[in-house]
Amino acid sequence: MPVYEYVCRECGKEFEQIETLSEHDRTTVSCPDCKGKKIERRWSPVFTVTSKKS
After folding, report:
1. Residue 39 and residue 35: Cα distance in Å, rounded?
2. CB 33 within 8 A of CB 8
3. Could you tell me which residues are beta bridge partners of residue 40?
4. Between the CA atoms of 9, 12, 15 and 17, what dihedral angle is there, to the nearest 10 degrees?
5. pLDDT tens by residue, 8-40
6. How many angstroms separate the CA atoms of 4 and 28, rounded?
7. Are 19 and 41 in contact (CB under 8 A)?
8. CA-CA distance, 8 to 39, in Å (whole number)?
9. Positive or negative: CA dihedral 31, 37, 43, 47
């Protein structure tokens, strides 16, 4: 499952949340510390493993 990184624009807390793709599309994220709704998504590197040789 993907790990999404966020930062709260109200308190400055950075946090991660594990969600499926469908959960991410329908979930409203709030800060785990202050429960704020002004959340900004951070871009992070992605690592994938495949069964095919490159």
Report:
1. 10
2. yes
3. 7
4. -10
5. 999 999 999 988 888 878 888 999 999 999 999
6. 13
7. no
8. 5
9. positive
- The structural domains of the chain, ordered by start, are 3-42 (2.20.28)
Q: What is the pTM of this model?
A: 0.71
Task: Name the token pair of 24.
Answer: 């991410």
Burial 26-54 (b: 16+ CB within 10 A, else e): eeebebeeeeeeebeeeeeeeeeeeeeee
* Residue whose entry in the numeric block shows the structure tokens 């951070």: 42
Q: For tokens 């308190």, what's the residue? A: 11
